[in-house]
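Subject: complex prediction, re-run

Hi both,

The earlier run crashed halfway through, so I resubmitted it with identical inputs.
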Amino acid sequence: DVKVTQSSRYLVKRTGEKVFLECVQDMDHENMFWYRQDPGLGLRLIYFSYDVKMKEKGDIPEGYSVSREKKERFSLILESASTNQTSMYLCARGTANGVVFGQGTRLTVV
Amino acid sequence: KQEVTQIPAALSVPEGENLVLNCSFTDSAIYNLQWFRQDPGKGLTSLLLIQSSQREQTSGRLNASLDKSSGRSTLYIAASQPGDSATYLCAVRTTSGTYKYIFGTGTRLKVLA
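This time it finished cleanly. Structure:
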């Protein structure tokens, strides 16, 4: 089974901190995605990447950036965390056979 | 712009009932459609994937159908069980350029024992 692993299940950070959410896949897939999930709003795409050092903005990129230095690792960066970024963050990798998700990171910004 | 809708938002049924969950999308130019299950506080688990050239897929008690021309997919769950209680989401993969997945907001299912 292909695995997508997110480094933390739960995180608590302070307002203004720089936050890194790490995601690693165990196969050589190009396409990776970061979503956030909020009640009533569903999954919203933040950024995605189709190759090393390549990235594209999703629907809600403001306040976020990403890094993809190696194919297997796709990091989401909150430049200066704010309380409205409290959410469930989900990383995924995609292929022609569908999208596979990590277990999610519940981030709370206080 | 592709939009995906799932109705109803929530559903409660007695154990043993057969049920249908609905997913609608506005642009029929999709590469595939995927159904997921999500338990509270967890990630998404893939249930079924239907390629754009297919009409349906089956796995155990689950059957998913796809009608691209009408922009609809259904997930049929036979003989529901309390363990089926979860949120069910559908997603379409776009065809244009660098692809992405567009999700519905999900149907929260509760199966009562």
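The interface with chain B takes residues 31, 33, 35, 40-43, 45, 48, 50, 56, 58, 88, 90, 92, 94, 96-104, 106 of chain A (CB under 8 Å).

- K.
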